[in-house]
Design a protein that fits this description.
about 260 residues; alpha+beta; 6-stranded mixed beta sheet; 6-stranded antiparallel beta sheet; GPI-anchor biosynthesis; membrane; PIG-X/PBN1; transmembrane
């Protein structure tokens, strides 16, 4: 295929996308501002996500999907999410098994879907807000000479935002459809329309403490000494509490008299 033909095909494709997008008002006229923050400290925190939607469409019957991609240094616990859902927490779907014990360098990224409804605000915008527990994994220790801070930074990116409305998807919007899990808990697929989003930040960042390999010899020696000292103390305590052995009867005491 010549360069001229390839150029024509690319131009036609771009024009087709622009025409399709402009004829789909939900996608063309709806935008969202995404903001999130991490609360609490340590390895177990809460992640709050707030989405402000601006749209001339009536979104009262729509469900908002937040498609999350968590890096290997973080995860969500489906069992904990199910417990919170029974108490009024958000609906969700996590399609993969989560091992909560593996460290960061042995863990895959986690894909999770959260479903929520929107509330109309006084300024004409729509609000979606959820707070979920998020956990951070232990990281492989490294040399303190190369990393003086001894902290790993885990970046939680903003989620993809999609809409699923009771009115369905029009023919003009069908080329823009994304097939994602259905609410409230998947795994069947439904038609979702993407929302263009922006934010004042690049996501949430958590700092996780990391072990120092320069202290490995000191840690091993200290652990060995403490273990040996504790073992000796336990043995000494057991020796003091051992009851004395009762004396054996002498054979010179004579025969045992017969029972009457």
């Amino acid at each position: 295929m010549s360069r001229g033909v390839v150029g024509v095909v690319v131009v036609v494709s771009v024009v087709a996308v622009v025409v399709t997008t402009s004829s789909c008002p939900v996608v063309m006229q709806t935008s969202g501002q995404v903001e999130r923050r991490l609360m609490n400290g340590g390895f177990h925190r809460d992640l709050e996500t707030t989405v402000f939607l601006s749209s001339p469409e009536d979104l009262d019957s729509c469900v908002v999907l937040l498609k999350e991609t968590y890096p290997p240094g973080s995860y969500v616990d489906p069992h904990q999410l199910a417990f919170l859902r029974a108490l009024g927490g958000p609906d969700f779907y996590v399609p993969q098994m989560i091992n909560v014990e593996t460290p960061e360098h042995q863990s895959p990224r986690v894909i999770a879907y959260f479903f929520t409804h929107v509330e109309e605000m006084t300024d004409g915008r729509w609000l979606a807000n959820i707070t979920i527990p998020i956990h951070f994994r232990y990281h492989r220790a490294w040399s303190g000479q190369n990393h003086p801070s001894l902290e790993a930074h885990v970046h939680i990116p903003h989620p993809a935002v999609l809409l699923h409305c009771e009115a369905g998807v029009s023919d003009a919007c069908s080329p823009l459809v994304h097939l994602e899990p259905c609410p409230p808990a998947g795994p069947q697929l439904c038609q979702w329309l993407p929302v263009h989003t922006f934010s004042t930040s690049e996501g949430a960042v958590a700092s996780v403490p990391v072990g120092n390999t320069d202290l490995l010899d000191t840690v091993l020696l200290t652990t060995t000494c403490l273990t040996a000292a504790a073992t000796l103390l336990i043995l000494a305590a057991l020796a003091k509490k051992t009851p004395p052995t009762p004396p054996m009867l002498s054979s010179s005491s004579g025969p045992v008299p017969p029972l009457s």
